[in-house]
Task: structure prediction
Amino acid sequence: MTTVHYIEKYLKDGDKILDIGAGAGEYSLYFARKGYEVSALELADANIAAFKKKLTPEDKIDLVQGNALDLSRYADKSFDNGRRKAVIISPSEASRKVALRVGIYKETLWTRTQKADRETGAADNK
Result:
């Protein structure tokens, strides 16, 4: 999980993570089991079912079935931890734009599709 190593470089104790498009939960489970507070949003029934099969009673994950383009269930600043607004694992530019538009996330660490943009400075031009 190369993305995990990238994300871990930026995580601090107490950070909250939102996994948008969580799939079957690999990232969410990994970080929750390392002690982070994780919220996972996934649309597909099959992925939700696979995710739930992996959950144990000790896993503290807020798993929700929903569309990445509708983040209205999360209150403004619900992932604000004082240093950075959130750590978001997001597979799409569209969900990133929705998150920014609704004002929940600002000054955020984005991963997956954002990695190259952040490293090259291209994200600053969007």
Notes: The mean pLDDT is 75. Residues 45-54 form the longest helix (10 residues). The longest strand covers residues 37-42. Strands lie at 16-20, 37-42, 61-65, 87-89, 109-110.
